[in-house]
């Protein structure tokens, strides 16, 4: 099974991945998006689960290979 088959990411999810791919730490992403660190971590975990990856870095690598970030 392909981890990302048939999955569409929202604009907010793509923004989060782009910020993570740019090298910003979770704390800075949370400040920039005006969300708590806990919310950012929860959203990252949900994306990983949705796409079938174990870590946010795997998700960022996939997004980069797809030309999304």
From TrEMBL:
<dbReference type="InterPro" id="IPR036388">
    <property type="entry name" value="WH-like_DNA-bd_sf"/>
</dbReference>
<dbReference type="InterPro" id="IPR039420">
    <property type="entry name" value="WalR-like"/>
</dbReference>
<dbReference type="InterPro" id="IPR016032">
    <property type="entry name" value="Sig_transdc_resp-reg_C-effctor"/>
</dbReference>
<dbReference type="Pfam" id="PF00196">
    <property type="entry name" value="GerE"/>
</dbReference>
<dbReference type="GO" id="GO:0003677">
    <property type="term" value="F:DNA binding"/>
</dbReference>
<feature type="domain" description="HTH luxR-type">
    <location>
        <begin position="2"/>
        <end position="67"/>
    </location>
</feature>
<dbReference type="InterPro" id="IPR000792">
    <property type="entry name" value="Tscrpt_reg_LuxR_C"/>
</dbReference>
<keyword id="KW-0238">DNA-binding</keyword>
<protein>
    <submittedName>
        <fullName>Helix-turn-helix transcriptional regulator</fullName>
    </submittedName>
</protein>
<dbReference type="GO" id="GO:0006355">
    <property type="term" value="P:regulation of DNA-templated transcription"/>
</dbReference>
């Amino acid at each position: 099974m392909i981890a990302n088959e048939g999955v569409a990411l929202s604009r907010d999810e793509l923004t989060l991945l782009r910020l993570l791919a740019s090298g910003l730490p979770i704390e800075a992403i949370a400040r920039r998006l005006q969300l708590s660190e806990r919310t950012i971590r929860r959203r990252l975990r949900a994306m990983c689960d949705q796409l079938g990856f174990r870590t946010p870095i795997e998700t960022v690598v996939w997004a980069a290979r797809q030309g999304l970030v």
